[in-house]
Amino acid sequence: MSDLQSPASTGTAGKASSDAPVKATAGGDAPSAPATSGRSFLPQSTLLRHLLVLAVCAVLAVVILEITSPFQNSQLATLSYYAIAAGGLTVLTGMNGQISLGHGALMAAGAYTTALLLDAEEPLPLPVILLASIVVATAIGALVGVAAARLHGPYLAGATLALAVGLPGLAIYFHDTFGGEQGMRVRAPQAPEWFSSFIDTVSGNSASSTKWLAYVGAICLLITYFFLANLIRSRIGRTWRAVRDQEVAAELSGINLGAWRVLAFVVSAAAAGLAGGVLAIVVRLAAPSGFTIVLSLSLLTAIVIGGLGSLLGALLGSALLVFLPPFVTNLGGDFGLSQTEAAQLAPFVYGVVLIVVMIFVPAGFVGTIRLRWMTRKAKRAMAQAGADGASSRG
């Protein structure tokens, strides 16, 4: 058997999932195939369904970006790189069960790679630069994943915490190359001519640099989630869930636990590298102060609030991370607080929201909704089966 061998049948992974009632991730695990009962207008193929969802989300993204102000465009650009990183982390933590506190460092690797390549006299095309950021972060993630493949729980968290603390410090040590504590100014890429024509055709608005960066972030977010959604619904995703829920059963079925954990870390690191590249061009700065442990903890809380194992939950948690602090700050100002006091109130409210979610909706927003929907569906199926049995006996 090969190292990356999946279960002999999907039933093995399904049994492993049912034997481990982990609420925090069960709500985020959707079935890998469409239900056969009932009428559905969606394509039967998972790939075609995701392509349809991708097209609808692309249209919605264009509409949202065209009806919002430049400041809101910048907020949406910020949301894009948070959501990309959170999507990769929810694959690692929610699907494979590995806790990582080092994703801020992986984002730093992507951000500095983007900054260095854009600083050249003749920069490469932006897609190539972002691809290079993915490759660099993936290489670092592979090394860390191999080293941490045998670690679990707090030991893995401690190892990734060391990565989060140590890797951004390299920018200070090699200050001639990476700018030290001040960081590197990132030269934002200019919008191509076709973008101005597109915006003029769609809405007639001005094609500003802020709007261009928001579109870049939206495109990267949609592509990342399309890729991750297909990966989660594939045999790879089922194998990750088997490794997460029942290690012994998975290993007895021929799964190489270490290899699959490394693969999950690599996929998550690739998403973090892309998020770092988008962050660099949106913020226009790559500095160690932007990639502290706070960033990694923020990503982890985002996927916990939204729902572990759910890409929609990662998006919602990231949106809360982006939009809640300014909302609370403005609300505090309306109640007579000073600007400093209102700004200090925002993290407190975010902490309260996290505590409330952990107490009342431990599976996260999306996970709790899915669990309740699945429970009601199961009860209706049992009631229907009981009614059919009574009628057949009658």
Can you describe this structure?
- The structure is a single chain.
- The protein has a two-stranded antiparallel sheet.
- It is built from 18 helices and two strands.
- The radius of gyration is 22 Å and the shape is globular.
- α4 crosses α16.
- It has two domains: 43-292, no CATH class; 369-394.
- The protein has helices at 10-19, 23-26, 46-67, 70-95, 103-118, 126-147, 153-166, 169-173, 175-178, 193-202, 209-232, 235-245, 247-252, 257-283, 293-306, 311-334, 339-360, 364-393; strands spanning 184-185, 285-286.
- It has 394 residues and is mainly α.
Q: Terminal Cα separation, in Å?
A: 53 Å
Share in β-strands: under 5%
Give the total of domains: 2
> So how many helices?
18
Shape: globular
Helix content: over 70%
Give helix and strand order, one letter per element, not per position.
Answer: HHHHHHHHHEHHHHHEHHHH
Whole-angstrom Rg: 22 Å
Instruction: Give me the secondary-structure category.
Output: mainly alpha
Q: What is the tally of beta strands?
A: 2
